[in-house]
UniProtKB/TrEMBL annotation:
<dbReference type="Pfam" id="PF00378">
    <property type="entry name" value="ECH_1"/>
</dbReference>
<dbReference type="InterPro" id="IPR029045">
    <property type="entry name" value="ClpP/crotonase-like_dom_sf"/>
</dbReference>
<dbReference type="InterPro" id="IPR018376">
    <property type="entry name" value="Enoyl-CoA_hyd/isom_CS"/>
</dbReference>
<dbReference type="InterPro" id="IPR001753">
    <property type="entry name" value="Enoyl-CoA_hydra/iso"/>
</dbReference>
<protein>
    <submittedName>
        <fullName>Crotonase/enoyl-CoA hydratase family protein</fullName>
    </submittedName>
</protein>
<comment type="similarity">
    <text>Belongs to the enoyl-CoA hydratase/isomerase family.</text>
</comment>
Length: 233
């Protein structure tokens, strides 16, 4: 299977497992990712997910051989290649990044709530160097994370962004030694899982939804979410 899942207590671990292709995305893998996160969302005992890659690589991007063979999802306005990147989960996801995180893999990491990376990780939209556009909301999420100018610098140069720079500009949440991204992400996930979940998820939804709202409407939306979970005193 191109994607493996396992449970570690309240943490749902999703592992991209195509190390022979540096975990590059093909059709079966894209579908398996969707299934894995649908299972996470529907599992009441799973509170946080961690997404990682096997073999010391997160995801090197879209599988060009699969694209040439026609074994790749055709993007549409409502369904990008990795349809999971349009999924609005009700629970947080942490990316644990080792090695390459390029192209579609970069966009997949941007979809996650938080990114924990090892010091040897590299990020970037290298797909642009091959004439392949961003198709999984990377051009939307990247500016919201690092700012307009920095996002354009990364996209227009299509360069490799080292982990230290990614942490400095806010793309990476936490930086670890080589080989320690997954253990650190699991520790962070367990910490999040210990927080009272209704209040945590209300805060998360407010943060996500505020981008399209005015200050007044965003504040009102925060109140609505809070009132829905506020305990009676």
């Amino acid at each position: 299977m191109p994607v493996r899942t396992e449970r570690e207590g309240p943490v749902h671990v999703v592992t991209i497992d195509r190390p022979e292709r540096r975990n590059a995305v093909d059709g079966p893998m894209a579908r398996a990712l969707g299934d894995a996160f649908a299972a996470f969302e529907s599992d009441p005992e799973a509170k946080v997910a961690v997404l990682t890659g096997a073999g010391g690589t997160f995801c090197a991007g879209n599988d060009l051989k699969a694209m040439a063979a026609g074994d790749f999802p055709v993007p549409t306005e409502t369904a990008p290649p990795m349809n999971v990147t349009r999924t609005a989960l009700g629970k947080p996801v942490i990316a644990a990044v080792e090695g390459y995180c390029f192209g579609g893999g970069f966009e997949l990491a941007l979809w996650c709530d938080l990114r924990v990376a090892s010091a040897t990780a590299e990020f970037g939209a290298l797909n642009l160097r091959r004439g392949l556009p961003c198709m999984d909301s990377g051009t939307v999420r990247l500016p919201r994370l690092v700012g307009h100018a920095r996002a354009l610098d990364i996209l227009l140069t299509a360069r490799r962004v080292p982990a230290a720079e990614a942490e400095r500009i806010g793309l990476v949440t936490r930086l670890t030694a080589e080989g320690e991204a997954l253990p650190a992400a699991l520790e962070l996930a367990r910490e999040i899982a210990e927080t009272p979940q209704e209040a945590l998820r209300a805060a998360r939804r407010s943060v996500i939804e505020q981008w399209s709202l005015s200050d007044r409407d965003a504040a009102a939306n925060e109140t609505r979410h809070a009132e829905a979970v506020l305990p009676a005193f």
